[in-house]
Each structure stands twice: as C-alpha cells, then as structure tokens.
Design a protein that fits this description.
The structure holds two protein chains of two kinds. By secondary structure, chain A is an alpha+beta fold. Chain A has two helices and six strands. In chain A, strand 4 and strand 5 form a beta hairpin. Chain B has a single domain, classed as Muramoyl-pentapeptide Carboxypeptidase, domain 2 (2-Layer Sandwich), CATH 3.30.1380.20. Chain B has eight helices and six strands; from the N terminus they run H-E-E-H-H-H-H-E-E-H-H-H-E-E. In chain B, a hairpin with a 3-residue loop joins strand 3 and strand 4. Classes of the chains: A alpha+beta, B alpha+beta.
Chain lengths: ~100, ~220
C-alpha cells in the first residue's frame, strides 16, 4: 500500500481561494487522472517539454501537475476553501489508488 | 544561454489561458485577468498628467508610484510564474544556469501581450532590456502624442527592476514564499536593483530601452 499523500504547502490567494500543494507517494499518472470524476475537464499538454496536466472541476477546484512528477497543486474555489485540505487529500488518494 | 525563447513563447501562447466561470484565468499558480491595456494606460496617464499639473514634486511621486506598481506586478506575477508548474513543464527543462531563468521569464512575458522584450545584456549587477511595441508607449502615443515628460513605460520599468531583484538580489531559484516580508526584503531598502527607462518610443525613440542596476 502506498504511503499517504502529504500536504507540503497551503496558502490563500488574495481573492480567498486556497491553494494546497500535495506530494504524492509516486509520480502523477495519466490513467489515474482519467479516472477522476467525469464532471471535470482534463487536459494534458503533451507537446510541452514536460507533460503538463490540468483537471478543472468548475466551481470546485483546479488540479495541476506534471505527469510523472510527485507534486500536484489544488486551487480550491472560495465556496470550498474551508474543506480544502481534506478534499485535496481525498482526491490525491484517488490518484494514488 | 540554453533557453529556446521562441519555443517558450509559443508553448505559453498555446496554454489554455481562458477565463473560468468567475471570469478569472487560473494559470501559473496565479489568477490572471484579461486586462484592457488602454484602460490601464488611461488611468496611469491621467494620474501622471494631473501630477504634472501640480508641480515637480507631485510628478516625481506619481512616477515613483507607477514604477512601484511594476515592482509589485513583477514580484507577484513574474515571481509566481517562476514558481509555477507551468514553468516546471515549459521552461525548467531548458535551464542550465541562473541567467537562463531570466531568458526564460522574458520569453514568457513575450506571450503576454506586453510588447516584444529582449535581453540585450545581463550580468549579476546589471541588465539591459529592449522592448519593441510596448503597450505603454503605444497607448501614450495614441492618446497623447509624443511625450514631453520623457519615458512613460512605468510598469515595464518596475518589471525590469523586479526581475533583477527576484533573481540577483533575492533568489527565486530557491522557491521562496512570495509574501509581504519577502517583498520588503527585496524592494523595501536600497540594497536591491532600481531600473530606469533610458529611451522611450513615446518620446521619439525607435523602441524602449531599460537598464536595471544595483542601487
């Protein structure tokens, strides 16, 4: 079983959104991103020097990261900022599953 | 220099920089806005001209305030970009030495619609940057004609100083927290860099040129 994802940074944007950066136990996988809730939009930019991934659930959160690297960033929308850490960790566990 | 500036600019221009349901553009770990250059220019130059009418002391304060806006913009926007995952994906793979951070961020700036920036000379103590078609000079010429006040690219002036402060006074490569304390450390004393616009298209030059030096 993979170790739990770890929160490495949490800060608030000027507008009030909360950013949570999480380090996964293993590198971010594209197939794991594709399994996330279908209400979000996934974009993986393979043409960049490193494949940049962006998963957006409107009104809820934006997840960004580089496929193959461990650190991912969640930007939680204002309405969900109070549960930012637990939401980010829950999604990170889905990514690690 | 190992950064392919054209490739960086094209890659950034291809990123999905569109507004979300709140009208904001979440990118580079920041919230960007699609800002109307003529609006920013109109506000800036109305302020500048009003200060000019009040006298030299007011004019000097207005210039300093408009450049300070550039410092703040550089600190948050350029600094935020250099700490972002988009930076890690697009620019970081090309970086071999500290100066590459500068060439990389200037290539990113060239995708943002501020004019075409080029680093003419760079050392740890000084940087010279030329800008073709800066939006500030373009706006000034369109609305007011040739400037009798010298250079008018205040945001760019602050931006150029800010870049040097982030890279050669502070150390953005160590991923510092971009908070008010760090801002004061970089800009709140005379130990850092200050910039000036040495020629400006709005004042008759072919292009705008800036130099940042340690104070």
């Amino acid at each position: 079983m993979s170790p739990d994802p770890e929160v490495v940074l949490m800060r608030d944007c000027l507008g009030g959104e909360r950013v949570v950066e999480i380090e996964l136990a293993d590198g971010l996988r594209r197939d794991a991103l594709e399994r996330l809730d279908g209400s979000g939009t996934l974009m993986v930019l393979d043409s960049l020097p490193k494949p940049f991934a962006r998963y957006d659930r409107p009104g809820f959160f934006l997840l960004t990261g580089i496929v193959g690297e461990r650190r991912v960033r969640f930007t939680m929308r204002l309405a969900h900022r109070d549960r930012a850490e637990e939401t980010a960790l829950a999604v990170a566990r889905e990514l690690a599953a | 220099m190992s950064v392919d500036g054209r490739a960086v600019t094209e890659a950034v221009a291809g990123l999905p920089l569109a507004g979300n349901e709140e009208g904001l553009i979440p990118a580079f770990g920041l919230y960007l806005t699609r800002h109307y250059a003529p609006y920013y220019n109109a506000v800036s130059y109305a302020y500048l001209h009003h200060a000019r009418d009040e006298g030299d002391a007011s004019l000097a304060k207005a210039r300093a305030a408009l450049v300070e806006a550039g410092h703040i913009c550089a600190f948050n926007t350029f600094g935020g970009i250099m700490l972002s995952q988009e930076w890690e994906a697009v620019v970081a793979p090309m970086i071999e030495e500290r100066a590459d951070w500068m060439y990389g961020i200037v290539a990113v700036v060239n995708a943002l619609g501020w004019g075409r920036w080029s680093v003419e000379d760079l050392s740890q103590d000084e940087m010279r940057i030329a800008v073709a078609d800066s939006y500030e000079s373009t706006g000034y010429l369109a609305e007011h004609g040739e400037s009798e006040l010298g250079g008018v690219c205040f945001l760019a002036t602050g931006g150029v100083a800010g870049l040097m402060n982030l890279l050669y006074h502070g150390d953005i490569t160590n991923r510092p927290a971009l908070n008010p304390t760090y801002y004061a450390e970089l800009f709140g004393n005379d130990a850092g860099f200050a910039a000036e616009e040495i020629v400006c298209r709005a004042a008759g030059a072919d292009r705008c040129e800036f130099v940042a030096r340690r104070q």
